[in-house]
Amino acid sequence: MKPAYEYDIQMPSNMDPNKKYPTIFTLHGKGSDEKDIYGLVAPLADDFIIVGIRGNLTAGAGYQYYDLKSIGNPLREHFDPAVQQLEATIHYVTENYPVDPGKRYLLGFSQGAILSLTLALTMGRELKGIVALNGYVPEFVKTEYTLQSVKDVSVFISHGEFDPVFPIRIGHETADYFNNKVSQLTFKTYPSGHGVSEENQRDLIEWLKFDASGHTRKE
């Protein structure tokens, strides 16, 4: 069955037909689209399958996965189905393309980071790792969702020190929440706003390369 979300997929150049590849599923921010994050992960395009998933609701000239009551307060009637449908989309892509199921990553910005963090908690070891840029975990996810162990999920969290949308304390709170739950946590802050700096991009690229190589890090 076709998934609920439109997606765009980029395959590595010079693919080996007998090989399965590490795969990055990208989740965009509010008002953007499925190709928005490709620029961030372009340096990985030769070695990873990259899948951009488009939100199914319109937001200005772009899209979103859910609407809000207010900042930090997603509409449950949108958010809950989004989590389920994104998980189904990840499984659909895995079944229909040469995706290595042991090396599936989520990379999200803002709204996409919120969903990436949530999916880490609901999918657990089905994911190899996540990159969450300027996001958080909604309180209702922590208290009402059925959460899986994320001990074996590698987590990279970053936040802009001058983010006017989600203040820096939210980044610290999110990192603190995951600190004792995962064995591989990287948390970095950058002198930026609600965006991704060049330094942030370099760090996440190196993190993904290193993690997918099978190495472990000591933070």
Automatic annotation (TrEMBL):
A matching Pfam family: Abhydrolase_2
Top-level taxon of the source organism: Bacteria
Assigned keywords, A-Z: Hydrolase
Keyword Hydrolase: yes
Residue span(s) of domain Phospholipase/carboxylesterase/thioesterase: 20-209
Gene Ontology terms for molecular function: hydrolase activity
Segments crossing the lipid bilayer: none
InterPro entries linked to this entry: AB_hydrolase_fold (IPR029058), LYPA1-2/EST-like (IPR050565), PLipase/COase/thioEstase (IPR003140)
UniProt KW Thylakoid keyword: no
Family: Belongs to the AB hydrolase superfamily. AB hydrolase 2 family.
Listed name of the protein: Alpha/beta hydrolase
